[in-house]
Amino acid sequence: QVQLVESGGGLVQPGGSLRLSCAASGTIFSIYLMAWYRQAPGNQRELVAQITGGGTKNYADSVKGRFTISRDNARNTVLLEMNGLKPEDAAVYYCYATVQARNNTPWVAYWGQGTSVTVSS
User: Fold this and answer.
1) What is the pLDDT of residue 78?
2) Residues of the chain with pLDDT under 50
3) Rounded Cα distance, 33 and 52, in Å
4) Which helix (H) or strand (E) holds 50?
5) Which residues of 13-27 are buried (b: 16+ CB within 10 A; e: fewer)?
6) Are 121 and 12 spatial neighbours (Cβ–Cβ below 8 Å)?
7) What are 5-38's pLDDT values in tens digits?
8) Phi and psi at residue 71, in whole multiples of 5°?
9) The predicted structure's pLDDT at residue 87
């Protein structure tokens, strides 16, 4: 079993910055894809950014140029650096990862509990 724990959410002013962190723990042999999703009230959950084990990154058009995703494989951690925050960025942000618990076993997807980001003056 794997747990994903997010941290770093909070209240920031428009134009401000925030760094989100997600650490994976449990029985882990390898982590392939790590990603951040977000869900605002009344909206569907949407992909914000993702990074593969090889370092390939993809971003939603709405955050491209403002957000940066990175990972620290030694610590099983993925980060999301958010700059130039806008009110429309306010949402609960969820960590996502595909994990192989042991060698030669299937990849399994996991979700974190979420961390809330509020953008307001």
Assistant:
1) 97
2) none
3) 4
4) strand 46-51
5) eeeeebebbbbbeee
6) no
7) 999 999 999 999 999 999 999 999 999 999 999 9
8) -145, 150
9) 97
CA dist 95 to 5, 13, 41, 78, 105, Å?
8, 23, 18, 8, 22
Residue 41 CB partners (closer than 8 Å, separation 6+): none
The whole-angstrom separation of Cα 29 and Cα 17 is 33
81 by Cβ neighbours in 10 Å (0-12 / 13-18 / 19+) ranks as middle
- Residue from 17, 43, 39 nearest 112 by CA: 39
- Token look-up 């994903």 returns 4
Q: 40 and 90 in contact (C-beta within 8 Å)?
A: yes
Do 2 and 108 contact (CB within 8 A), yes or no?
yes
